[in-house]
Design goal:
Helix content is 41%, strand content 18%. It is an alpha+beta fold. The strands form four sheets. It has a seven-stranded mixed beta sheet, sandwiched between helices. It is globular and about 85 Å long.
Length: 948
């Protein structure tokens, strides 16, 4: 469990291996002092070893999710190792792993997995980055599937066929993936990447590669990459799940011991990012950039990780990060702030380097000002340090997160452990286990001094190894500073005079209302869902389902009918923003940042919402903070904070987002399509205009909020999680003090939702400069006959899953004209009910027509044949396996119980008979549903092509 910084630009490359850590709390007796020079131990619950041929393995038994196991192959090789004629072939190799191994030739692997209920994409996938390639597959844990998991990993590790026909068939898919990455972000990256990684191999080894190599490479070129770098000493096998460790270890030895090292293995080189004495400044602009972003990096040698002392130092850095980000959040709250968001911290970079980073999204034409403010704040920290009160809150927060994670150990998902072991193998991150980490936190965090935290930050900002990256829109009226202007801001920041930080913490109670004990009365009980419904003296009803899926989680949701449908078309957009604007202002006498400070050390969150037909609250907490959650609910009724400055800041944020989105081709495409598809319904604001945003009135926002949350009479509150009888009494006591004046009693549920325009309609959007196309095909048929029939709903879901499988088989695999097709069919049981179907397909512009035709042909195929028995059997098993996992999550039960009350229906059969209902679905059902709801006289098509 390591703390790392997410460097914002990394999302462009799907760096899935870099993840934030979980943290936990204090408590318990004082233990013997740890030896800071000692090595951090490896968690005894993971079986770790190395075979004679060099393969490392990690095996751990874990019950979450039950009946499942994650198999993972980690290869210490990525695009950084490609030769000039191999650009993109590390990633192409990853694709070929799904197109033929000695165990599963051609596409047999995916077919067999789907036949066992394993979904391609969701349960089996991979990613390639500069220095690693990681594969995973989540499997049921029966004997046959465990054997198959071993064969899959062994096939990936050493037995890829690299069939020439499969390579040629996959080129189109890879090209479409490459095409999907084109756009403003790609063009911006090509401007700043060579500067940011000046004189480094990282500048020209982007994993997706080049179109020329992808189209023209020969088989022997990719085979050379595979044979050079897919070898035992560069591989780790990770298996975590509901397993017997001894048996799995024996299987690992059986399958992987015979994998041979090459006769003359190449040395695995590691590449650096050179030091730079002078600042490196990259200013990248693009007409389609959707936002401006400032990033400042200071490169440092990688911090050591192996000893207990190293771990303690990581805790010191975490505390500093917590305080810095709290300060930036408070600064961003002010309407006068030059940025919408700012953050900072310290973590991993590239090439075994760390970095300090500051980042911000500046407001329009305030780039230099935002840069100066970030640097000034770090100078303030350097000159005056942090405050003890800030450190105390940061400690409380860090200890609480460790406590929570340690308490949830036995409920931790297997993929989380697999992530940790991946980082241990690739980066040397320590893996002592969360309970040992919690023990370290409880020992070290209380004793960490203010001087230590102040000193650790002093080393972050240096004169050398500084990189400044600015990405910004290129448009009329938008001021972009020059490199010299940025360097002047940086130089001037060193002369800035600073004053000590002033802590705005409010030392007053959050809640001071008298709360009396009441006795809730059990109104009803559902033995299938295992919940009880209670009623209070004030008439409010609440539902409780006790679970043990997570030790430290209680989820809350409430609703009452009403929502934005009660308001005019002209006010619908404003009503949709009311709850967020009020929420952002804080609560009672506490601004948003003051409330965050007040709640540090607690794990609790509550937010109001207003949807089209309902209003209510969503929230979650740990059991010990339930009372605080209930206090917040009352305060949202009785004491919403009216703050003009917060309102103005949020309106400015919305305006900035609107202006930036206007340059995005896909945003314009979505706007054109949905406005056409729903006949320009005034209540459907796909992409608001500045006029829409400026029409949001401060006084009217609070008036609407008070109307929607004037009365809790009709609110039904649902609680799911680790709930004790004492918790139930707390819930009852606080809900009983909510206002129940009858002002909102029996408000109607109105149908004002947009309806799909009659007939067949098309929109064509010409936007963007890249050779990118996109097609959306969407149909909708109202009057869902299965509104009250659970089996019919399940059958519609199955039809959508079958449509996704066929779309992948035809448009991706057979035609090679898209990379990640999405297709579905779904139902809505509100009002008259409807069934809708949707395709979302990215492709080359010249292929838009053929992709559209292919989608329509798939609908015709469904209408004519339904789906074949083999596909239906895959879908059934997927749905059953997915339900088994869902039923181990609080969210699933919350959604089901919410539906019971929102729609006033009995859903017992959805639990007791789900598997039987799924298995009862026939190919005839698929055909019947398709004929009833796939209306080829009533759908909409949207097409996106480049401007030229």
């Amino acid at each position: 469990m390591k703390k790392q910084i997410f460097i914002l630009f990394l999302f462009l490359f799907a760096a899935a291996g870099m993840s934030f850590a979980q943290f936990g709390t204090a408590g318990g007796k004082k233990e013997k002092k740890s030896d800071l020079t000692a090595k951090v131990p490896i968690d005894k619950k993971v079986r770790m070893g190395k075979l004679d041929n060099g393969i490392t393995y990690y095996i751990r038994a874990n019950k979450k999710p039950e009946g499942r196991v994650q198999f993972r192959l980690v290869v210490n090789a990525g695009s950084i190792l490609e030769d000039e004629d191999q650009l993109g072939l590390a990633h192409f190799t990853e694709h070929m792993a799904f197109n033929g191994t000695e165990y599963y030739p051609h596409n047999e692997l995916i077919n067999k997995l789907q036949a066992k209920g394993v979904q391609f994409g969701g349960h089996v996938n991979a990613y390639t980055f500069f220095d690693q390639t990681v594969y995973y597959v989540n499997m049921p844990n029966d004997a046959e599937m465990l054997e198959m998991g071993m064969k899959i990993l062994d096939g990936w590790a050493s037995k890829l066929l690299m069939d020439s026909k499969e390579i040629d068939a996959e080129r189109g898919v890879i090209i479409e993936e490459w095409r999907g990455r084109l756009g403003a972000q790609d063009r911006l990256q090509k401007q700043y990447w060579p500067i940011m990684f000046k004189d480094s191999r990282y500048a020209n080894r982007i994993p997706i590669g080049t179109e020329e190599v992808l189209k023209t490479f020969q088989r022997q070129t990719i085979v050379r990459f595979y044979e050079d770098w897919y070898r035992p000493d560069l591989q780790a096998v990770i298996i975590v799940g509901d397993i017997n460790v001894d048996e799995i270890e024996a299987k690992v030895k059986e399958y992987f011991n015979d994998n041979k090292m090459p006769a003359n293995p190449k040395e695995r080189p590691y590449f650096n990012v050179p030091d730079n004495k002078e600042p490196l400044v990259a200013i990248a602009t693009d007409k389609e950039a959707s936002s401006a972003n400032i990033q400042m990096f200071w490169k440092h040698p990688q911090a050591p990780k192996g000893t207990v002392g190293d771990y303690r130092q990581m805790l010191v850095r975490n505390l500093a990060e917590n305080i810095i980000n709290a300060r930036f959040a408070e600064m961003a709250e002010k309407a006068s702030a030059p940025f919408l968001y700012a953050g900072g911290g310290y973590g991993s970079f590239f090439a075994k380097l760390d970095c300090a980073v500051l980042t911000a999204f500046p407001k329009d034409n305030r780039i230099e000002e935002a840069t100066a403010m970030l640097l000034k704040e770090m100078k303030r920290v350097d000159e005056h340090g942090f405050l003890q009160t800030e450190l105390d809150r940061a400690k409380e927060s860090l200890l609480e997160s460790y406590r929570k994670a340690a308490k949830e150990l036995n409920k931790t998902q297997s993929n989380a452990f697999a992530d940790e072991y991946t980082q241990h193998y690739l980066e040397g991150d320590v893996i002592p286990g969360i309970r040992q980490e919690d023990a370290y936190a409880r020992e070290f965090v209380p004793e960490i001094t203010l001087e230590e935290v102040n000193n650790v930050v002093k080393d972050w900002i240096t004169d050398e190894n500084f990189i400044y990256v600015l990405t910004a829109p290129e448009k009329e009226g938008y001021s972009i500073p020059t490199k010299d202007a940025i360097l002047k801001v940086v130089a001037d920041s060193k002369k800035e005079q600073t004053e000590p930080w002033v802590d705005t913490y409010k030392d007053e109670p959050l809640f001071d209302k008298e709360v009396k004990d009441v006795i809730p009365v059990v109104l009803s009980e559902n033995t299938v869902f295992d919940y009880k419904e209670y009623v209070l003296p004030n008439g409010i009803r609440f539902v409780v389902k006790k679970t043990n899926y997570k030790e430290d989680e209680i989820r809350m949701r409430s609703f009452a009918f009403g929502g934005s449908a009660l308001y005019s078309d002209q006010e619908a957009f404003m009503v949709g923003n009311v709850a967020n604007l009020v929420d952002e202002a804080g609560i009672a006498n506490f601004s948003s940042s003051q409330l965050s400070k007040k709640l540090q050390g607690k794990t609790v969150g509550v937010s109001p919402y207003i949807s089209s037909n309902t209003q209510g609250f969503s929230g979650s907490c740990v059991p010990k903070d339930l009372e605080t959650m209930m206090q917040l609910v009352d305060l949202y009724y009785e004491a919403p904070r009216k703050d003009r400055e917060s309102f103005d800041r949020n309106i400015e944020t919305l305006l900035t987002q609107v202006r930036m989105a206007a340059a995005n081709p896909q945003a314009k495409f979505m706007k054109d399509f949905y406005e056409m598809a729903y006949d320009h319904n005034p209540r459907l604001v796909v992409m608001p205009t500045e006029k829409d945003v400026n029409g949001i009135d401060f006084e009217r926002v609070y008036q609407i909020y008070s109307e929607r949350f004037a009365d809790a009479s009709d609110q039904i509150f649902i609680f799911v999680g680790n709930i004790s009888d004492d918790n139930i009494r707390t819930i009852a006591n606080y809900l009983n003090i909510l206002p129940t004046n009858g002002k909102q009693k029996n408000e109607p549920k109105l149908d004002k939702g947009p309806k799909l325009a009659e007939g067949v309609n098309h929109s064509l959007t010409l936007a963007g400069t890249d050779k990118q196309g996109m097609v959306i095909v969407m149909g909708e048929t109202r009057g869902f006959a299965g509104k009250a029939d659970l089996r019919e709903r399940i059958a519609v879901t199955a039809l959508g899953e079958a449509l996704q499988i066929r779309t992948t088989e035809v448009i991706r695999e057979k035609m090679g004209e898209t990379y990640s097709p999405y297709a579905t069919a779904s139902y809505d049981i509100d009002f008259d009910g409807d069934v809708s179907w949707l395709f979302y397909l990215q492709c080359a512009p010249e292929n838009c027509a053929s992709v559209e035709k292919a989608a329509i042909d798939l609908i015709k195929e469904c209408v004519k044949k339904g789906c074949d028995r083999e596909t239906l059997n895959k879908v059934k098993l997927q749905m059953i396996k997915e339900r088994e996992t869902q039923m181990q999550e609080n969210n699933f039960w919350m959604g089901q119980i919410l539906g019971i009350y929102m729609y006033g229906e009995n859903r017992d059969a959805n639990i007791t008979d789900y598997e039987a209902m799924v298995n009862s679905i026939t190919t005839h059902d698929m055909k019947r549903l398709a004929r009833r709801y796939f209306d080829l006289g009533h759908y909409a098509v949207g097409t996106l092509k480049p401007e030229n």
